[in-house]
Design a protein that fits this description.
Structural class: alpha/beta
Number of strands: 6
Largest sheet: 6 strands, mixed
Number of helices: 5
Order of helices and strands: EEHEEHHEHEH
Distance between the termini: 36 Å
Strand order of the largest sheet: 1-4-3-5-2-6
Radius of gyration: 14 Å
Low-confidence stretches: 1-5
Shape: globular
Mean pLDDT: 84
């Protein structure tokens, strides 16, 4: 596969784009770095990995939130999710990736505020986590124990573990 010269993700500077089909649907939390030592993973790294290593058309998450709280939106992913094949979740929920290492990083305050915005705009009533949806017997540690504990504490009324 060719190296991605330009990401399909748009940096959100004003209002969060609304994709009607996902309003009121569950949101699934991911981190691209649940099991690795580096925590400086960014949206463009996610997309490069998804396209070059997994053979997908674009990044798998509809939203990606950088450590500084900047939100990236993938218009192609809004139409075709790749974030979780287990239990058909690509058609049932939309994916949000929290940049950083989920085994050692909590949400930054900026990430928390950005996540709150997405939750409000999309009227999210349920937050799911990737690790709860194995596929063909394969399990994931995503979003990492530290991030999962933080998300569960901050959004206890919304987090639904399967």
């Amino acid at each position: 596969m060719a190296f991605i010269q330009k990401t399909t993700c748009e940096k959100i500077t004003n209002e969060i784009p609304i994709v009607d089909r996902w309003v009121g649907k569950p949101m699934m939390i991911h981190t691209a770095a649940a099991d690795i030592k580096r925590d400086n993973i960014h949206t463009d790294n996610h997309e490069r990995y998804h396209v070059e290593n997994l053979g997908w058309d674009h990044i798998g998450y509809m939203f990606s939130i950088e450590k500084d709280g900047v939100i990236y939106f993938s218009r192609p992913t809004a139409n075709k999710q790749y974030h979780c094949i287990g239990d058909g979740q690509n058609h049932k929920s939309f994916g949000v990736c929290i940049c950083g290492c989920g085994t050692k990083n909590y949400l930054t305050e900026e990430q928390y505020q950005s996540l709150l915005k997405i939750i409000k705009v999309y009227q999210v009533g349920t937050i799911l986590v990737h690790r709860d949806f194995p596929y063909k017997g394969k399990t994931k540690s995503c979003p990492g124990d530290v991030l999962l504990a933080d998300i569960t504490k901050r959004f206890s009324a919304l987090v639904h573990r399967v």
